Structure formats: structure tokens, C-alpha cells
Amino acid sequence: MPALIELRDASCLEALILGQQEMIADLQAVASLQLPQGRIAAGYIRNFVWDILHGYSERTPLLDVDVIYYDPDCLDEEAEKEIDARLGELVPKWNWSAKNQARMHLRNGHRPYESAEDAMRYWPETATAVAAFWTKDGMVQISAPLGLEDLLHLRLRENPICDSTGTFEQRVQSKRWLELWPRLKLVSKEV
Length: 191
Hints:
Mean pLDDT: 93
Protein name: Nucleotidyltransferase family protein
Number of helices: 9
Strand content: 5-15%
CATH topology: Beta Polymerase, domain 2
Organism: Paenibacillus brevis
Pfam family, one: NTP_transf_6
Shape: globular
CATH class: Alpha Beta
Helix content: 25-40%
Radius of gyration: 16 Å
Largest sheet: 5 strands, mixed
Distance between the termini: 38 Å
Number of strands: 7
Order of helices and strands: HHEHEHEHHEEHEHHE
Number of domains: 1
Low-confidence stretches: none
Structural class: alpha/beta
């Protein structure tokens, strides 16, 4: 991991990821499955950024690697398990967790999502709603429908469009983010 550096925008983050062979291999594995709008999201990218901004020399361990995609023609949960297995064969290091965002609105009680990126707009924290994918041109591209400001400035903020059901607070506590990354700033939800 690089030393403490400044990340200003998506192009800085993309360049940083391009310098990480393991991340490139993971992104290429997902791309090889040709999932519609397939990308690695959430903690995989968020934690990487927080580790960099804290100057950590090693990545904080991940429980799983979230892969999102959008396929309205196949809403079968079993297809997600097959994707997890295929990714596990390609990169056995990770516990893969693929989720088709075309069906996740049912679990979340929202209107149907229009794309993987649209689904990310409803995630509990702004800093988590970030993903990366490997392009056909062999580059990394960042997707961040809620922007990168909070992620890059170490702000832990509840997504303003999320219901205030305690999900955000529960996640902050159970995931121990403030302990793992003590420079994070917990931002109160605007009323």
C-alpha cells in the first residue's frame, strides 16, 4: 500500500487502483464474466480508500467482496450463487457476494432500480456507494452516484434519501468503522 497521500477525484482513485495488481486481477475476473453493468462495489473500494487515507501499509481484511450487476432478464437468486462460485474459481482468495441490482428493490422496499448505479443511490452511507469496473479498453472506471466527496474526505454520512430506521447507526457500530479508521468524521444527518 502506498504511503499517506491525497486523493482528489475519481481519476486519482482510478490511477491508484491501476497500481494495485491484486485489484486489477479482481476487476478483470469480474469483467471476464461479462455481467451486465458488473462491478466491484462497497467495502472493497471504500475500505481501500480509507486504508490509503490512514496511511496503512496493508489492507484492512474484508469479510466479502461485493459484486453488483444489473440483469432484469434473470432475477433468480441462484444465478447470483453461480456467479459467486465462478468468481471463487477465478480468485479463490475472496468470499464473493454477487447481487443482481435488478431484484434488490424487492428486498429494500423501493421502486424498481433502473441500473446498478441507480441502485447504489439508495445505499445506507454515501461513502459506500462507490464501485469500480474494468473497461473494455483495459482501464479502471469509478462509479459513484452519490459522489466521492465524503469518501475522499473521510466523512461517514448517512445517505440523505435513506429511511432513518437505525440501519446506518447499526452499521457504524457493528462494522466498527470508527475504531478501524479513527480519522473518520461521523456526520449527522441533515434534518
